[in-house]
Request: fold
Amino acid sequence: MAINLSLAPFQGITTRIYRNAYAKHFPGLDRVFAPFISGIHPEKVNPSKFADVLPASGNTIETIPQFVSIDSQEVLAIADFLADHGYGHVNWNMGCPFSRLANKMRGCGILPFPEKVRELLDEIMSKITIGLSIKTRLGYHHPDELSSILEILNDYPLKELIIHPRIGKQRYLGNVDVDTFRKYLAMSNIPVTYNGDIFHTTRYRELSNSNPGVSSWMAGRGALINPFLAAQIKGINLGDQEKRDRIGAFCNDLAEGKGSRINNEKKILGQLKAVWYYMSGVFSGGKQYFDAMKVCENSQSYLNFVHEMMQLPFASDHEIEHHWKNELKHI
Ligand SMILES: Cc1cc2nc3c(=O)[nH]c(=O)nc-3n(C[C@H](O)[C@H](O)[C@H](O)COP(=O)(O)O)c2cc1C
Reply:
């Protein structure tokens, strides 16, 4: 069966410039999810809030916009606006663990309140004109919470359910709970996408072999660290020189794209460094270079670091896993 592979959304990193450059230079992805939109006034939708996904014709890969909300009128206004601008699918973020949102019942903060989910879906599903999917976790405080939520979700024609098998309180720490994920996979009438800790092909294979019911896969940090992860999962193997050339071309497109929009060198550098925070991990010893790069203050020294980093050998799966575990401490 063909593998359907998506790139997870990352606020502040996977902007449209990033997503398009990624899809152009790194093969293997089928779809990308855009970081969430929030704060839309239903009576007066501000188009600038949708700047990252407009126009839809500017996407070079299938792109699914995402929102955070607990207001049915806001959800319908977002969906209508996106439908009017050519989108056929929008994703509802019920997984964001950050307390600023979760304390207000947003993101994974809604998971302890199944009746609120039912009330919202009752108001939304009879009127929404585009496909609605949900990205969620096992719970906010406890992995049992998704159980009552899923009983409700099963009553509605949702397009897809993306599950990250951690609870909100874990944020991105600790192990993913694949056994509990499997329980929910069996319960779900909605096609399920798995998201969590796919940081190399061996892990992907273990997960896909032990979860044959999964209909699609979403890679997050693993794909930001190793932009060839999707290709490797799909069996597309590129030589080292070609990989370096592709990373170089990707970086040029990012810098050019950002330079044409932002007239502030420091800001552009900050955004490029955020990309390298993860991508330095694709090189063996790249993390040390990143630590030096993150304090550089001008484009020339940034480019020197990139040039030096690109001479390093590629990291092994083991190193990438190690890198990933260490990075968790900083999130
Ligand atoms: C800095 C950061 C920003 C994120 N932004 C979003 C977001 O806007 N929407 C979303 O659904 N998830 C967001 N996530 C979660 C990721 O999409 C993904 O679900 C998470 O990293 C787990 O997948 P992974 O283990 O493959 O990385 C974010 C995560 C991080 C670390």
User: Anything to note?
Assistant: The beta strands are 5-7, 31-37, 62-67, 89-94, 131-139, 160-167, 192-195, 216-219. The chain has 14 helices and eight strands. The domain at 5-233 is CATH 3.20.20.70 (TIM Barrel).
